[in-house]
Please model this.
Amino acid sequence: MRELIRRIDAATPPGRDRAVDALRAFAILGVVLGHWLVTALVADSGTVRTASLLLYQPHLVPLSWALQTLAVFFLVGGQMSVKSHESARARGVTYRQWLGARMARLFRPVAALLVVWTLAAGAMLASGVGLTTLHTLLKLVLSPLWFLLVFAALTAATPLVARLHPLWPLAVVLHVDLVRFGLGGPARLGWINLAAGWLVPYCLGAAWARGGLRGRTTGWVLLLGGGAVTAGLVRFGGYPAAMVGVPGAAISNLNPPTLAAVTFGLAQCGAALLLLGPLRRALARPAVWAGVALLNLSAMTIFLWHQTAMMAVTSTVLRLTGPLPGLHTLPDHPGWMAARLLWLPAFAAALLVCRAAFGTYERDEPRKGGGRVVREGRPAGNMAKGAVARRG
Model:
């Protein structure tokens, strides 16, 4: 382990901002823990259905403030994409080569997930699993993919939006919500915000890549301003306090994104910028940096397979023991959360198995023309160097 840590630290380019990698790792872990803590798979009358902890215990809504970290991911994604594109242009790499390499990195792991779950769905149907249960499981697996589609679209548009001021997409979100909620416009109009809403932190990341967002003042303005506006929208504007979708709620802040979700994301981006200094100091320690680097090496695998890991543990235990608290029961009492916390190590162990089985689809492989587009170190083959050379 000491040798691996030493190799990772030695292979890291001196100018690499390790804090950016830490923010991306934090964003991924926030999504994973959010799903594991909030989503219950309830076994009832021979079927499995989902239930939200926040519906039955609304006093735990603050969990969604800490674990809905998508804005941070888009902030980091915008910063990395702009830097990667500018670096590729400087080396004479065409836009098509650059985009092809980045899309391959995104969707190779997705292809593996879809193949496995297509086979699994066929096997479950053949064995007599009900359509309701199968729909529940497939929805959990496939619903996070919307985020990747949006991220892929924004990545493809990087040359167009790299210098777009974040206030422009923010104004679009504001007017869409004004028409939807203030003037009684059609609900489908809100899907415009699926692009405009996440374009706001993506454009902030682009400004960061160009040398903007310097100084702690910007971070404090985003944190305090975004937080104050979000609080006002929740208190006086009728927006829900939960920053994730809650089944049965009249409005979802996330599906599609609302103005409250976007202003809350601005507050998160401000907090992320304020944490850069402390993170850089902490990540100067080789052991801490090695953990972040290795987590980033498997970021897509962790994101894509964490729901599968949770479902694998849930179904295996159900067959062996029957329904157990915190795993197969409604989250309608305080003890449910305590029981769920005890299951997290089992979910993590199952995720490590998925990572070992499918992590290879995430690793870059040398390819003619585009092989160095997404790397600033050396080609894959040395795990330590591969971990620290990734850029997006």
